Amino acid sequence: MVCESTNAKGAPCKARALSNSRFCYFHASESSELRRVAQSNGGRARAVTASQPPALEFDFSSPEKIPASLGLVATMMLQRRIDAKATHAICHAADTALRAYALSTVKSQLDRVERLLESIRKRPVDPAETTDLLRFERSKLQETDEMLEELGRRNDKVTDDD
Q1: What is the pLDDT along the chain (162 residues), one digit of tens a residue?
Q2: Where are the domains of the chain?
Q3: Which of 14, 72, 159, 162 has minimal CB crowding within 10 Å?
Q4: Cα(87)–Cα(71) distance, rounded to whole angstroms?
């Protein structure tokens, strides 16, 4: 239900009416005292207060230790020992640490693969191994060609149906 009052320009108010009322929060006479108190508070209830950082140190030194630290953060927040902003900052730091570990792991794996490739390039070529690799590549190419042909047939069928 829409409020039955009008705005300052005389146009109908488009706000939703309060339950059991014909008017919205701003036009209902029974909410005028609540509005006055809310306006006098003027956002004081939401004033930013500096959060005391937690006395504990969170261990982000390895990926295995981060879940325990995040559990401690969650417990502290639920006990109201730290606020939501501090919790968010700590969780963001944990996420950043996890991403850094993941990147370093990928980098070390990539370095290892590059070293292996380099060692393979430097060793003498084994004719049997080359033949096996070529046979594998030919079979994969054949499978790929067959898939492409099937997709082409399906595409032709769809365009013919249109």
Answers
A1: 889 888 888 899 988 988 888 888 888 888 777 777 777 766 555 554 555 555 667 888 888 888 888 888 888 888 888 888 888 998 999 999 999 989 888 988 888 888 888 887 887 777 777 777 667 677 777 878 888 888 888 777 766 765
A2: 1-42, 49-128
A3: 162
A4: 11
Burial of 15 (0-12, 13-18, 19+ CB in 10 A): middle
C-alpha 86/C-alpha 73 separation (Å) is: 9
98: region left, alpha or beta (phi > 0 left; psi from -120 to 50 alpha): alpha
Among residues 56, 93, 61, 88, which one has the least CA distance to residue 74? 88
CA distance to 24, 27, 144, per residue, from 7 (Å):
11, 9, 68
Q: 161 is written with which tokens? A: 């149906």
Return the amino acid letter for 103: L
Exposed / middle / buried, residue 25 (Cβ in 10 Å: 0-12, 13-18, 19+) = middle
Alpha-carbon distance of 15 to 143, in angstroms, equals 63
The answer to whether the predicted template modeling score (pTM) of the entire model surpasses 0.70 is: no
**Residue 13 structure tokens:** 């108010």
